[in-house]
Amino acid sequence: MTLFWIICAALLIIAILFVAVPLWRGIAKDNSVVRDAANLEILRDQIAEMDADLKNGLLTPELHEQGKRELQARLLEEVGDTKTGEVSKKPHPLKITAVVLAVLLPLASVGLYLKLGNPNAFAPQPEFGAGGIVRDEAGIKALEDKLVQNPNNPEVLLMLARSYVELGRYADGAKKYDSLTKLVPDEAMLWADYADALAMTQNTLVGAPTSLLNRALEIDPNYAKALALSGTAAMERGEFSVAIMYWEKLMKQLPPGSENAKMVEEGLRQAHMLLAQSKGGKVAQLDQINEPAPKAQAAGQERITGTVTLSAALKGQADPNDTLFVLARAAQGPKMPLAILRKQVRDLPVQFALDDSMAMSPQMKMSNFDQVVVVARISKSGTAMPQPGDMQGMSQPLALGSKGVKIAIDQLIR
């Protein structure tokens, strides 16, 4: 803020110099000498006329001499007045203008900035995480106070909604997204995020969340998050062909070979496999399917427990407010999460337990597979999809029911 005012002061000084200095120097030159020379020339002309009149007998010598004395006296009076005026001369108008501008220009500039500018632009603001997320209670309280003053501020509503979801307050986040979609009804992102938050409160994407996703895709048929969640919702409903349609459309938008593309590709393989089974077909008939059908596990025996720690080498790169995901995925098969637990880096070391109650859909449960891999990922963006800059660690393939699993987060995703 101080630097800003220093720069403004410097610019004002330069502006004043450009305006005032030329005015100060632009005083008209003294023309008294020119005026005296003109008066002297006039005097000479008049004396010459009087001499001619004397010669022609039009003037007597006495009148001629008296006239000359009068002309000389008048000339002396005019010269004396000029010198007196020079001594008592008032300040030149251009100098007065230069001084007035030097005073008024800074006052006018500051006044206009205070009226039209934003004096609070450099004031300290709450620290936001990625995507405008506030992770501390003081920041949340500040946003809530702003919302009280202006309940229809979409920017504050969006920050609060994302922050509530980040802190696990899914119901509060869903309420804010509901208000947002009424204020900004034509934004696909808001409808998809609303569906995501509502699904976290209901533990399912079926029903109201699906309707919200449909609205998002009406606005933008290619919105990636809406396509991804719509495919998951279709898997929950057992509509595998619909899930394939959404995910194939999503695959066209993802960079080939990226982590997200691999996850969606594995989801497609699982959907094809389940679709073939539902129709009584053979999985082997599908070229892209080469893993065996999942094998059901007795309920309650699928639980996997263990501890997640962060390696010393990466501690300096993780913020205590960063999101920590602990998830299980099939060792052979789709890489989509079968169970997921959400914490924060400040909770490390974390004791975890994963089971079917944390499944994202009935068809995608831990108990459907013989072996799973447990992944622990620190997300800078707050989303479960891996991004460059995230940190992660993973286990070897584990049998269901494994206990005391130890996972160290020691890899940086690039």
From TrEMBL:
Q: Which SUPFAM superfamilies match?
A: TPR-like
Where found, per UniProt?
Cell envelope
Q: Which residues form the Cytochrome c-type biogenesis protein H TPR domain?
A: 142-259
Predominant localisation class: other
What stretches pass through the bilayer?
6-24
Q: PROSITE patterns attached here?
A: TPR
| TPR repeat ranges, renumbered to this chain | 154-187
GO BP field: cytochrome complex assembly
- Domain Cytochrome c-type biogenesis protein H Ig-like: start-end pairs: 304-410
Where does this protein have coiled-coil stretches?
none
Its GO CC terms? cell envelope; plasma membrane
Name of the protein described by the UniProt record: Cytochrome c-type biogenesis protein CcmI
Origin species, per record, is: Sideroxydans lithotrophicus (strain ES-1)
